[in-house]
Specification:
Blueprint lengths: L1 E6 L6 H4 L2 H8 L4 E6 L12 E2 L9 E2 L1 H15 L5 E11 L2 H8 L3 E6 L7 H7 L2 E4 L9 H12 L32 E2 L2 E2 L2 H4 L3 H19 L1 H14 L1
Parallel strand pairs: 1-2, 1-6, 5-6, 5-7
Antiparallel strand pairs: 3-4, 8-9
Helix pairs in contact: 3-5, 4-6, 8-9
Bound molecules: 4-(1H-imidazol-5-yl)pyridine.
């Protein structure tokens, strides 16, 4: 997969992309990530990327020309007639595992990281396919959300995870949160590992894990629980 990330702060990505699973995926040639600083697409002496919004609201907006030029340059370089172009913004649709799976099947993706009060709407209308939010809180920009998308998508690419890490049993894979997990020692600061997990009775262990997963999903994420029960009804 080819990724191009359009940002004013390419150095923010150095750390997260130079360790662990993303680094391994890059080293194996399974994903290639190019960082593009759209300030390089300005043409004025001051390399201006922002301007005040029409309508008189306070704060600054990203002006359209440098961003649009950077997106067009990425599209040309990718050689994909229609690379998925995604903007990270608080106005986006909330990211879900299904969206991550869909994105992981793309040949190439352009991620556009907004800053300040956002981006001139005409860039979104003409050049962006979808806007994604990673949660209902305001961040300083789209860079960390872009890292989240890259992490979530990269681990689904064929060959990235080894067998022991396989994505199949992760939270949300089967629509529920993961049950609590334990490792050695059997007793830690007076707290015991639940008896059933030590029993060696695989059927009972699975039943217990299902019950726990259902319980915490119901309690903590009624939204996820509702989606899960609806899906069960459709399937039966
Ligand atoms: C982007 C928040 C994606 C949540 C970008 C300010 C953002 C965001 N998800 N907030 N700029």
């Amino acid at each position: 997969m080819l990724l191009e990330i359009i940002t004013l702060f390419p150095a923010m990505f150095d750390g997260p992309f130079s360790d662990s699973i993303i680094k391994r995926a890059i080293d194996k040639g399974l994903v290639s990530i190019r960082l593009v600083n759209f300030r390089d697409f300005t043409e004025d002496k001051h390399r201006t990327v922002d301007d005040s919004p029409y309508g008189g609201d306070p704060g600054m907006l990203l002006k359209p020309e440098p961003l649009a030029k950077a997106i067009v340059a990425s599209k040309e370089r990718l050689g994909d007639s229609a690379p998925k172009t995604v903007c990270l913004s608080a106005q986006g649709v909330p990211l879900t595992h299904e969206m991550v799976e869909t994105l992981s099947r793309e040949q190439s993706i352009i991620l556009v990281c907004g800053r300040y009060k956002g981006i001139d709407q005409r860039v979104i209308d003409k050049y962006v396919d979808c806007e994604i939010s990673v949660g209902d809180y305001v961040l300083s920009g789209g860079e960390i959300p872009a890292m989240i998308v890259v992490d979530a998508v990269t681990r689904l690419l064929p060959g990235v995870l080894g067998n022991s890490e396989s994505a199949g049993k992760d939270s949300f894979f089967d629509g529920l949160l993961s049950p609590p997990q334990y490792t050695r020692p059997e007793s830690f600061e007076g707290m015991k590992v639940p008896e059933v997990l030590l029993s060696g009775h695989h059927e009972n262990i699975r039943i217990w894990q299902r019950e726990q997963a259902a319980k915490i999903t119901r309690e903590r994420r009624p939204d996820v629980w509702e989606k899960y029960t609806k899906k069960l009804k459709v399937e039966s």
